[in-house]
Write a structure and sequence with these properties.
There is one protein chain. The chain has 4 domains: 149 residues, Chitobiase, domain 2, CATH 3.30.379; 341 residues, TIM Barrel; 59 residues, no CATH class; 126 residues, Jelly Rolls (Sandwich). The chain is built from 18 helices and 36 strands. Strands 8-9-14-15-16-17-18-19 form an 8-stranded parallel barrel, surrounded by 4 helices. A 7-stranded mixed sheet has the order 1-7-5-6-4-2-3. Strands 27-29-34-31-32 form a 5-stranded antiparallel sheet, with no helix packed on it. The structure holds ligand TNX. Ligand TNX binds next to loops.
Length: 736
């Protein structure tokens, strides 16, 4: 196939439509491999019939059109213009590929497999008004531009992963996700269904896993974590529910790959069945700050229990892949555990890393026993070889995935720097940043083949790419999942589907803003909006719009813009730039975060000399995070205590001189990340340093004070247990 021609085709087609009323209607995401736009259109109305042998796809289209347009497609043979959808093994299309032809009288979708027919319908829907994804009729013009498309995916593995352990999502969200990923021609849903903070799948042989292990809270076997606070939190899916989900996914060409994360990340199991955990490890913490979360690999009971669990999983999930984790095990657990040590001795092992490989090799055998192929994270390569069939998920870096490929393993690429949807999208937004700030552009750029110099044989081992959402930080607001995934998941979809020769970020961005925003709106996705770039120069606030036609509103009193704020029209002359805030709006549905000029400090925090007293001992301070960090007024820094806080704990900030101010914001936890904050407590303040007034309770680790006199002291007061094993405090944000 000649990609240069295909690219020319795509360009020609876009050019053809520039300046014409239907310009947006060929903005397909992911971009098809070959597309020609012809003149004319096919009008959808009640005089159209639908025929063919691809029943699910036919029904899907009928249902969408009747809901969104009130159009009732007639059955085959009833006359009128016609839509035909056929699966024919002789159609000559590639795996999951399709041919879509739209002429004024006829639409045909032809594919060699059902997946192809499904994707043909997805593309056809993107040629319709965005309202096709909606739940109501809006009076659109239901005509479809004439096109000729030949399309197929670049990668066979095009995934989205979701962690439902740290945050539990109801089934409704899982179904929404399946719809959304299928609209983007993604075909794998990697369900991270267990972790330290909740076991979320019914296992009939071990009922405690969900009776107890699915719940955390003050009186549960799992302590509160990640903002779940002082209440019972959790949930799980029954096997019957999962069967329904799988059926729904299969219809939409989605393979669900379940992950049971072993032998680390297993606090939920071990809290319910302590006999399979290492002993003598109460103080050995994982990188996520968990203790008692590692299976004992020197104990046969471990393997019996895993075998029994896998038996149920294997019977439930049709996928040939079984993901058993393998990541981030703190091997000190094994070092300190008498059973593991005795086992190492018996086996003649010298290092704990050999235990990791031993464990993984046993997992390969258990998977094989049930007809499955083992899948695991980068770390399963540690300490020895693997079966050639075993699949590695390269997450830590591009390099780690490439190493797996060079070792001859089939590999899915999800390097965190490109694919982790829990990473911040800019320095101003919430999210993890340990890997990178992951912009839309970063996700779009990912190319595991072109970024490595693999041999043709090695290229065959690159199964594809995946975007992953870890959910430690998803405790708010309810639709934050959508904010994190979209539109980054659209970028991943194009990376996964479209040949790199055809990819062009600016072109993608135009398609997103000109058409796909409207589609996502109709899909009901509360996607992230980009904020404007603002700089202050020559007494003027200069605003750069994030895209053509964006609606930007602003305020002049430092409050967040709303739909009734003024619309920005051009440069603003002012001597008080810090009072301005700008945000991008999409209809009345969505808006970006509010920003001020990036080259000035919009807050003007005061920095009075302050000293600290507290209930924590010097020895409890973590290395590298000293108490002095919270008197520095460097807002990125924090003081970290290596223990959970409880009622009675406090931090007292006393100013050398009383401070005149309008507002003090007291933030606990890690700056920009809702980790290790005060979940049960309130703030107190004092004008004389002796008598304290109770202020607000901490909400998401933050409390504010609006004093009426000069303030001498501010106190963080814990009234109950905090919900992480670590506690963190920040500098006071004091404003005039
Ligand atoms: C690393 S990726 C993890 C997860 C965390 C994630 C946060 C991987 C295999 N382990 O447990 O949730 O980082 O970004």
């Amino acid at each position: 196939m000649n990609f240069r021609n295909a690219f020319a085709g795509a360009i020609v087609s876009l050019a053809l439509f520039t300046g014409c009323a239907q310009k947006n209607s060929v903005d397909i995401i992911p971009l098809p491999q070959q597309m020609t736009v012809n003149s004319g259109s096919f009008t959808l109305d009640n005089n159209v019939s639908i025929a063919g042998n691809s029943q699910f796809e036919i029904d899907l289209l009928k249902e969408k059109l009747s809901t969104a347009a009130g159009i009732v497609l007639k059955d085959a043979g009833e006359g009128g213009r016609i839509i035909e959808i056929n699966v024919d093994p002789g159609a000559g299309t590639k795996k999951e590929g399709y041919i879509l032809d739209v002429t004024p009288d006829k639409i045909t979708i032809a594919a060699s497999d059902k997946a192809g027919a499904f994707y043909g319908v997805q593309t056809l829907m993107q040629l319709m008004p965005p309202a096709i994804y909606g739940k109501a009729q809006g009076g659109e013009n239901w005509s479809i531009p004439c096109v000729s498309i030949q399309d197929w995916p670049r990668f066979g593995y095009r995934g989205a992963g979701l962690d439902v352990s740290r945050t539990f999502f109801p089934l409704e969200t899982i179904y929404d996700m399946l719809d959304w990923i299928s609209y983007h021609k993604l075909n794998k849903f990697h369900w991270h269904i267990t972790d330290d903070n909740g076991w979320r799948i019914e296992i009939k042989k071990y009922p405690l896993l969900t009776e107890k292990g699915a719940w955390r809270g003050p009186d549960e076997v799992l302590p509160p974590s990640y903002g779940s606070g002082n209440k019972r939190y959790g949930g799980f899916y029954t096997q019957e529910e999962i069967k329904e989900v799988i059926k729904y996914a299969v219809d939409r060409n989605i393979e669900i790959i379940p992950e049971i994360d072993l032998p680390g990340h297993s606090k939920a199991v071990i809290a319910c069945y302590p006999e399979v955990g290492c002993t003598n490890v109460d103080k050995t913490m994982s990188v996520n700050g968990e203790v008692n979360n590692v299976w004992c690999v020197g104990n046969e009971k471990t393997y019996t229990m895993i075998d029994n669990i896998v038996a149920e999983l294997a019977a439930l999930f049709p996928s040939e892949k079984l993901h058993l984790g393998g990541d981030e095990v703190n091997m000190d657990n094994w070092k300190n555990c008498p059973h593991c040590q005795a086992f190492m001795k018996k086996m003649g092992m010298k290092e704990e890393i050999e235990l990791q490989n031993y464990f993984v090799r046993r997992m390969e055998k258990i998977a094989a026993k049930y007809g499955k192929v083992l899948v695991g994270w980068d770390e399963i390569r540690k300490g020895g070889d693997l079966e050639p069939s075993t699949i590695v998920y390269g997450w830590a870096s591009m390099k780690s995935g490439a190493e797996a490929v060079r070792k001859g393993q089939r590999t899915v690429f999800l390097p965190a720097q490109y694919c982790y949807m829990d990473m911040k999208q800019s320095k101003y937004e919430r999210g993890h940043n340990w890997a990178a700030i992951v912009t839309l552009d970063s996700t779009y750029k990912l190319d595991p083949i072109n970024m490595n110099d693999f041999t043709p044989e090695q290229e065959e081992l690159v199964l594809g790419v995946q975007a992953n959402l870890w959910c430690e930080l998803l405790d708010r607001p309810a639709r934050f999942l959508e904010y994190q995934y979209f539109p980054r998941l659209c970028a991943l979809a194009e990376t996964a589907w479209t040949q790199p020769e055809l990819k062009d970020y600016d072109n993608f961005w135009n398609r997103i803003t000109a058409s796909h925003y409207d589609r996502m709106y109709n899909m009901g996705i509360k996607f992230r909006m980009p904020f404007p770039e603002v700089v202050y120069e020559n007494n003027t606030l200069k605003v750069t719009s994030p895209y053509e036609g964006a609606e930007i509103r602003y305020t002049t009193d430092a409050t967040e813009p709303t739909l009734s704020s003024d619309i920005w029209k051009g440069d603003i002359k002012t001597d008080e730039p810090e009072k301005y805030r700008f945000a991008t709006f999409y209809k009345d549905f969505n808006q970006s975060i509010a920003v001020g000029a990036s080259n000035i400090d919009p807050y003007h925090y005061l920095t009075p000399e302050v000293s600290i007293e507290s209930s924590y001992k010097e020895s409890e301070t973590a290395k590298g995070f000293p108490m002095a960090n919270i008197t520095s007024y460097d807002m990125g820094k924090y003081w970290r205590i290596n223990r959970r806080s409880d009622a009675g704990d406090f931090v007292l900030y006393t100013f050398k001189e009383p401070v005149e101010c309008g507002k003090i914001t007291v933030e606990t936890g890690v700056p920009g990340i809702t980790f290790y904050s005060c979940t049960e407590g309130h703030v107190e303040y004092s004008y004389d340093g002796e008598n304290f007034i109770k202020g607000d309770d901490f909400v998401y680790g933050i409390a504010t004070i609006k004093p009426e006199e000069k303030v001498k002291a501010v106190k963080v007061v814990f009234t109950g247990m905090s919900d992480a094993l670590i506690t963190a405090f920040q500098n006071l944000r004091i404003e005039k």
